[in-house]
Amino acid sequence: MKTPRIYYGAVAVFWIAALVIGTAGAASVTQQGTGSNQTHKTELFGPQKMTLMLSNLTAKGYDVSAIQTAVTNGDYKTAMTLLQQFRTAHPDAFPARIAGTGNVTWTGRGGHRTTN
After folding, report:
1. How buried is 70 (Cβ within 10 angstroms: 0-12 exposed, 13-18 middle, 19+ buried)?
2. What is the rounded distance in angstroms from the CA atom of residue 41 to the CA atom of residue 99?
3. CB-based contacts of 102: which residues, under 8 Å, 6+ apart?
4. Burial (CB count within 10 angstroms: exposed 0-12, middle 13-18, buried 19+), residue 79
5. What is d(CA 116, CA 72) in angstroms, rounded to the nearest whole number?
6. Is the pLDDT of residue 18 over 60?
7. Angle between helices 47-59 and 65-72 (to 10 degrees)
8. Fewer C-beta neighbours within 10 Å, C or N terminus of the chain?
9. Residue 17: helix, strand or coil by DSSP?
């Protein structure tokens, strides 16, 4: 028994359509070109986070103008060095670290975690 060519053509069109629709659906799930698959991310990072931290320290009465000037000029290496010196000189300016935080190991399928 010969299978008609129309049958092969219909099957080929079906699989091509399935591949195109599947690819388009997968592309719409990920944000192409952003380097991230997280939507609605409102977390601050980089200069914005540093500026917010410096404004909070200024509001507490600390003089961080040298660090702020380095950040404004884009000299983040100097800003980080000055921030480390400030942190050493004023350990009370920053919240204390909570004991037990740090390395977290995720185990199991339910997302259970243990801290080291």
Report:
1. buried
2. 28
3. 115, 116
4. buried
5. 38
6. yes
7. 160
8. N
9. helix
What's the CA gap between 67 and 81, in Å, rounded?
9
Per the listing, tokens 């410096």 go with: 54
Compute the distance between CA of residue 92 and CA of residue 42 in angstroms, rounded to an integer.
28
The DSSP output letter for 116 is -
- Torsion from C-alpha of 47, 51, 52, 54, nearest 10 degrees: 140
Question: Is residue 105 within 8 Å of residue 113, measured between CB atoms?
Answer: yes
What letter does residue 94 receive in the DSSP assignment?
A: S
Question: Residue 75: what pLDDT?
Answer: 87
Q: 48: part of which helix (H) or strand (E)?
A: helix 47-59
pLDDT at 107 over 70: no
